[in-house]
Structures are given as C-alpha cells and as structure tokens.
Predict the structure.
Amino acid sequence: MSRLDEARLALMLLTRLPAGQIKGDVPDIAAARWAFALTGLPVALIGWGALSGGAALGLAPLPCGFAALAAMALATGGLHHDGLADMADAAGGRDRAHRLEIMRDSRVGSFGVLALVLVCGLGASALATMPRAGAALMLSAVISRLAMVLVLALLPPARAGGLGASAQGGGPAWLPGAALALLLALPLGWAGLIAISAAAAAAALVAWRARTTIGGQTGDVLGAVQICSETAAWLALNAAL
C-alpha cells in the first residue's frame, strides 16, 4: 500500500477535490494522518485565487475575503464548518450523552449559526486586508490541519465510532506536517511563529472544551479545531505582518 494512496485518501476525506482512484486495498484512515496537513495546500491555493480574482475584478476588500472563504468552503464541502456548528450547538446539552446526541443531529441550531457567523466574519475581515496573502493562507491551512493530527494523538475518542476513533493510531504522523509548517513559516519571519502560536492556542482551547464536556474528540471536534485554529492564525498574521 503506497504513500500516494494514503495521500489520496486524506484528500478524499478532507476535501471535495479530485484525487484519482485507489487501486487495491484502501488504506486505514489512521495511516493517512501524515497527509492531513498537506491537504491544506490546494485548499489555500483555491482561496488565494478567489481573493486575488476578486481584487482583480475591482471588488472591495471585504467581499474579496468572503469570496476566498466561500471558495475554500466549496473545496472542503463545508466539512470543518459543520463540525464547528455541531460543537457549538452541543454547548447547550444537559450532559455528555445529550451533547453527543446533539452533535450527531444534522440540523444546525442557534448556537451553531452564531458560531459560523462570528468565525466567518472574523476570517473574512482578516483576509480582506491580509498582507502577503498567499503565504499566509498556505501556512494557516497547513498548521490548522496539523492541529487536527495533534488533537487526534492527545485526546481519546469520545465515542466508539466515527472519524475520531477510526483515525487514531501510533507513530509520529505529525512530523511531515510540522516540517512543512516550519518551512512555510520561514518566509514570514516572526509573524509565522506568532501565527503558529495563535493556532496552537485556539486548538488547545477547543480540545480542552471537548475533553471537559464530552470526554474526548470526535470528527466534529476535529473540524472545529481546524476552523478555529485557521481563523486564529489569520488574525495573528493580519496583525503581525
């Protein structure tokens, strides 16, 4: 089973982008974790294209920021946004079992809508006036997906089934993403390190909330980690660059 098949599986799981066909046995999701961070690169390039295209058409900065968000959401199928909304809705649960039940529900409640509006608004505002947007988008996309891999390693599954349980495994799956993140941070100097710190803080906050309210991580928690850490990185880069 090749690394290419594992990378294809990661792209199929985390995006809606064409990834070709996997011939033969499909790799375990846990084996594909090393490639999670890499899937952020094509998504970031799509967002950068939308941001630059909007500016070339003469759109104001804020609509350009929302265009970039929309393009990236289309590329991922809104997968991570759905996780954020479900986790926010679960905040109103009575206990652990009720919160997990809410997170399984495909409907979005008022907490979920508010979370999406606030996070998307902050993200679009940060991207609207982002210096060196291409480098900023690529770094943020990689470190936010690397955060998912780290949360997978550090938190137990909150329930037996689902992505959170099937993607767990041993080994340093975070190393390729960490190496790529450091490489992408170098051209940004101290701003890159600040962005990594901001993303880590946001991911840690989401992980702590998940650990204390539902006992661990799920696919929805991983989605919330990605969106929140990416938005935190955008805000940090907007301020630091």
User: Anything to note?
Assistant: The longest helix spans residues 190-213. The chain has a mean pLDDT of 93. The chain has eleven helices and no strands. The chain has one domain: 3-240.
